[in-house]
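ENTRY TYPE: paired fold submission
RECORD: A
CONTENT: sequence, then structure tokens
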Amino acid sequence: MLKAGVLGAGHLGKIHLRLLKQSSKYELAGFYDPDQKNARKVAREFGYHMFSSVEELIEAVDVVDIVTPTLSHYDCAKKALEKGKHIFIEKPIANTVEEAEKIIALAGKHGGQGQVGHVERFNPAFLAVKDKIRNPMFIETHRLAEFNPRGTDVPVVLDLMIHDIDIVLSLVDAPVKSINASGVSVISNSPDIANARIAFENGCVANLTASRISLKNMRKSRFFQKDAYISVDFLEKKVEVVKMKDAPRKEDEFALILQNAEGIKKQIYFENPKIPVNNAILDELETFADAIANNTSPVVTLTQGKEALKVAMEIIANF
């Protein structure tokens, strides 16, 4: 069993603490939060051990779970990796691509494993269909959120859109060719709504929209590929899979048949994949424990986290 400690006891940090405590793959050593008032409250309310410094926590654990503001990700990761510890680091991996590259270099030098918290990779709706998404040629995503002051210190691209950037990069097996984007600041000092068009060298195009000033929440992605349309609702945990196949010679009177201008007939049919019941955050933490135990690659590597950040930064640079 791996000893784990959490850096940061904010909203998400408390969720990580609770899940690490209940996990059979970790022994929770405790947490550190620089806000002493909040730290004492969390320790008192939940009974977690409160460390007096980042360094003290790192010395006591095998895995450092970094759930701090993005600005401090690099410093926390550097201290942990230099002590030979493994790191789970929330998205985005770092504040800059250069910091992300330094984290990767430190992990390689000191032998530490690292995973980035792109939690939508573990969303049960996505897990139900990811193996059915093959060579998509057009992708459309909408990630809309009602206004919440938490997170407005960074552009909406790093706050919300980066989830979809990571999903898209995990599915498209081709380098990015070009990016066009626009962003508008409405209530924050940084853009609150953004749209990006990412073209890949294999011809795939992804159109991503993110907003944190919407009247309703939405997290939907649509994938179009040869003979199939797949829709994933990350929020409602629902999927739609619509496929086409050559129409049989003897047509069922109830079958949905389409005929193109060349006279080729295709039959439309629907699949209903079973959606697993899971806790995505617990799953990402526990698969990281498995990767450490088996010395295998984590589901979301540090390099993949860097690539998502790199695309996000290019989008922001296009505003």
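RECORD: B
CONTENT: sequence, then structure tokens
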Amino acid sequence: MRNLVYYMAVTLDGFIAGPEGQYDFYPLADDMTAWIAERYPESVPTHIRPHVGLPVDTPNKEWDTILMGRGSYEPGLAAGADSPYGHMKQYVFSRTLAQADYPRVEIVAGDPVELVRRLKKEGGKDIWLCGGGNLAGQLIDEIDRLIIKSYPVIAGAGIPMFSGVFSPTGFAVTDRRSFSNGAQVTWLERA
């Protein structure tokens, strides 16, 4: 059965983006960028791949499906990419976007839990929950693994990693890696 993996960047105070969806304040480092391209090439948007030396047709290693809230989808749209992860099956959760306007992704207005449970039963690689915090909050009981890229930055306000109801959920750290910019990647499995 496939796993739902929440792979995201987060500040020290628990935000995945600023109040207006900003994410350009995360400190970049060449060693981390190269590692991401090697370890998780599918996480590099299709339209960005040529700019980081990653061939567009690089095979997916971990995930073949991506789930995005509207806020996670909009940066790609702003860059002119209506299919930011064209190398994967893309689901965008929105009650306001019309499918006819975005034919290269699947717009989902319904229950994300129902979709995830169906996807988990299908064959294929794992499913990447890209964000945002509202969608992650709705799917907290379905998340099997967390891969947290934590950066040494305090945002002060923004979009939380999870939003929703109080639901303490245990995870166990399975690995951790550090980079030259002070960021760490931590892998956690549902306890």
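NOTES ON RECORD B: The domain at 4-160 is CATH 3.40.430.10 (Dihydrofolate Reductase, subunit A). The first strand starts at residue 4 and ends at 10.
STATUS: closed
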